[in-house]
């Protein structure tokens, strides 16, 4: 395997510009790439595929990369097979996964990425890098035919991981409670990725990048923190 | 139709005891009831059915009502048909709905409640009162065979409705953004029920109760607030 994958918690840091905090990393990740295939199916806030693709285009033109939205391509599987690089944007994971099944794209993306096509996922695009989308934070606004996803890593991901707010007088579940509920029904470990963190996967090595710790949840274990640069290859 | 339904945002207010804030209402709602059928399938924080049923038992013994957990009954459909009253507790809506489909209980509950069996739902038990569970806040920890639910009201519900926190430096979607994403894909209106609010349904009349406003989301309309005692029968 010759893999090059970035799975980022978020596309945008609070107060920052779209993909700005990842720019140096992406210059290396996509070096030599002239044209990027963008998957806009997650439609954040319900914006159109064109609007969303335009947002990606604005960022990537600054680093000399052309962006093509997969919604504009008729032969979508072929587009994935021939793509120089693939970027799946954030938004609603249920919507994203429903569309990926509708066009039967999951196998094609998995094969391309496992054979070396550089991949970038943000938020929902990171959720689908895990074994399933069962640890997404999103609202189930549509019913996809399955929750199984790409499995680029042998665990699940929780992007936008959020620590409990001790001042909040609200009785909704904390993120940790939700992930522990997941572990009451599943064996798969979960990596809680705080905003500003990403996983970098080179071949089979999985490294936590960014300045923040990540929180790891495993069945029948107390959740624990890991520092940046930890290798997560053995978590499964 | 002779219906008596309470759909509450939460079972417990911040700093309060289980069901305490609803006690006066429940004394009337369940007056004459000697035995209540409890549906513990949502398993908050992954607790067992027995533990969860015990929590309900502790509250209801104070108002002279015996509680039977449906998990202890072999003939579950018959138990629903014969129940004096039904209470579905909160927790994870995906888990709840998966179990309701597994035992084929949705039709039985709908029939019983529409024929006069008093019903109480809290949180996940309120979500299933809507047309679908597509506006739950919960994590999709299991894959139910459908998102369709009881449809005791002609719209969807969002329990634990939470206003945006202007101080939060986090890029995850607000509750309002999530519900607007739902409306980009669905026609069904959504009632955002803040903690401390509940809907009281008497026959076909649907009244907002408690001291707080609720937030209404309709397709192609700006979300708006409604005061307590508003009749929601015409929202569809």
UniProtKB/TrEMBL annotation, chains A, B:
EC numbers on record: 3.4.13.21
UniProt keyword Cytoplasm, yes or no: no
The record's section on InterPro entries has: Class_I_gatase-like (IPR029062), Peptidase_S51 (IPR005320)
Superkingdom per UniProt: Bacteria
Under which main EC class is this enzyme filed? Answer: hydrolase
Against SUPFAM superfamilies, the record matches this protein to: Class I glutamine amidotransferase-like
Q: Name one GO biological process term.
A: proteolysis
Keywords, A to Z, come to:
Dipeptidase, Hydrolase, Protease, Serine protease
GO molecular-function term, one example from the UniProt record: serine-type peptidase activity
Q: Which NCBIfam families match?
A: PRK05282.1
The record's family statement is: Belongs to the peptidase S51 family.
- Put simply, this protein is called Dipeptidase PepE
């Amino acid at each position: 395997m010759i893999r090059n994958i970035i799975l980022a918690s978020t596309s945008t840091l609070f107060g920052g510009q779209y993909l700005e905090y990842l720019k140096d990393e992406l210059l290396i990740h996509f070096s030599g790439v002239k044209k990027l295939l963008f998957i806009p199916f997650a439609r954040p806030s319900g914006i159109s595929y064109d609007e969303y693709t335009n947002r990606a285009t604005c960022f990537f033109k600054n680093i000399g990369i052309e962006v093509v939205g997969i919604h504009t391509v008729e032969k979508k599987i072929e587009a994935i097979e021939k793509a120089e690089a693939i970027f799946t944007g954030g938004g609603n994971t249920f919507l994203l996964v429903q569309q990926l099944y509708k066009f039967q794209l999951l196998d094609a993306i998995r094969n391309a990425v496992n054979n070396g096509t550089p991949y970038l996922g943000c938020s929902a695009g990171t959720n689908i890098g895990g074994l399933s989308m069962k640890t997404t934070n999103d609202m189930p606004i549509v019913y996809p035919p399955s929750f199984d996803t790409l499995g680029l890593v042998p665990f699940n991901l929780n992007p936008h991981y959020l620590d409990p707010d001790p001042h909040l007088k609200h009785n909704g579940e904390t993120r940790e409670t939700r992930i522990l509920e997941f572990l009451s029904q599943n064996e798969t470990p979960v990596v809680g990725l705080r905003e500003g963190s990403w996983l970098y996967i080179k071949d089979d090595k999985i490294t936590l990048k960014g300045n923040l710790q990540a929180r790891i949840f495993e069945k029948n274990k107390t959740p624990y923190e890991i520092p940046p640069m930890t290798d997560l290859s053995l978590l499964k």
